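Q: I'm building a small set of examples for a reading group on sequence design. Run inverse folding on the following structure and report the sequence directly after it, with nothing in between.
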């Protein structure tokens, strides 16, 4: 026996995808009177935060693998690290192309992301020495295109 959905729950709480479709239709029709503005704002804020978190996550992963490739002498691992570097760069390029304003966030968070990546990589490879500061260019074009290990 299935339970009926409580009628007191809003469409937003019952079915997010249907709520989104409804909100989109209302916006297209100019039906602002019936628009669930409070939840729309919450979803838009969440989307903005999600994109920023994705930039940070991908930047940290990119930094970790560049550090590995530059400072860890394990040639059998190079191909895997290079594939990860390629993937993170490609995804970052896509994100930054879709939302150029995220470039500011990339630059603003670079030092924090490097610090986190460095801590992680020192735990993963305790027998290797890593610089305490980023030794290369940190501008977006350099980070997304230069092979620092060559």
């Amino acid at each position: 026996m299935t339970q009926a959905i409580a009628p007191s729950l809003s469409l937003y709480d019952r079915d997010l995808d249907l709520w989104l479709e409804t909100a989109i239709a209302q916006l297209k029709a100019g039906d602002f009177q019936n628009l669930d503005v409070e939840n729309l704002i919450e979803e838009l804020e969440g989307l903005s935060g999600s994109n920023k978190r994705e930039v940070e996550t991908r930047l940290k992963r990119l930094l970790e693998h560049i550090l590995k490739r530059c400072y860890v002498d394990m040639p059998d691992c190079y191909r895997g690290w290079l594939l990860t570097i390629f993937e993170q760069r490609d995804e970052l390029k896509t994100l930054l192309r879709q939302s150029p304003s995220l470039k500011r966030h990339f630059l603003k968070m670079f030092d924090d992301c490097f610090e986190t990546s460095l801590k992680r990589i020192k735990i993963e490879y305790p027998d290797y020495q890593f610089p305490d500061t980023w030794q290369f260019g940190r501008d977006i074009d350099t980070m997304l295109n230069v092979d620092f290990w060559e």
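The CA atoms of residues 62 and 85 lie 5 Å apart.
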